[in-house]
Specification:
With 181 residues, the chain is of the alpha+beta class. It is built from four helices and eleven strands, in the order H-E-E-E-E-E-H-E-E-E-E-E-E-H-H. It has one domain: CheA-289, Domain 4 (OB fold (Dihydrolipoamide Acetyltransferase, E2P)). The strands form two sheets. The chain has a six-stranded mixed β-sheet with strand order 8-1-2-11-10-9. A five-stranded mixed β-sheet has the order 3-6-7-5-4.
């Protein structure tokens, strides 16, 4: 039993409890990222979204432009009577816009309380990634924001950048996408 009169970091019993609690927190953090991810490509790199955030994958369809929206907001689509904003993830990430191909598609995902279409080069597969195979995003210094990266998944000898879609598309982005809808 811990003696409350001896509470201090130098107490070996408390150090052991601290280390055990820290290890448990790290294990919980690792396991919280484990799961199934829909993987897709942008500019030859592989990215992933938590499968539970994905509603469906649709082929390209007519996108109606909406004036006075950011460049990465391509417009809106009418999906079975529901108007859904579409963003080009390449443009959001500062990449060059690409020509559409037969593999270009839209991932309809839940971003907060709404559905958004995410334009990607192509969808790859669904990966089941264990927590041990997901590392935190590396630090690139103070000028590089990696908050939108949920982690880096390792599978089959390659890496997949796992995205936190709610941080990729911020509240301001969502507001800009739906402002004139």
């Amino acid at each position: 039993m811990i003696d409350p009169n001896r509470v201090g970091r130098s107490d070996p019993q408390l150090r052991s409890i601290d280390m055990s609690a820290e290890k448990t927190l790290q294990e919980d953090h690792i396991q919280s990222k484990a799961g199934k991810y829909l993987t897709f490509e942008l500019a030859g790199e592989e990215y992933g979204l938590e499968i539970l955030k994905v509603r469906e994958i649709i082929g390209m369809m007519d996108i109606t432009s909406v004036p006075r929206t950011p460049e990465f907001v391509k417009g809106v689509i009418n999906l079975r009577g529901k108007v859904i904003p579409v963003v080009d993830l390449r443009l959001k990430f500062g990449m060059q816009q690409a020509e559409q191909t037969a593999e270009t598609c839209i991932i309809v995902a839940y971003v907060g309380q709404m559905e958004m279409g995410i334009l990607v080069d192509k969808v790859s597969e669904v990966l089941d990634i264990s927590g041990e195979d997901i590392e935190d995003a590396p630090s690139f210094g103070v000028d590089v924001n990696t908050e939108f990266i949920l982690g880096i998944g390792k599978s089959g000898g390659h890496v997949t950048i796992l995205l936190d879609i709610a941080r990729v598309l911020t509240n301001e982005d969502v507001a800009a996408a739906v402002a004139d809808i």
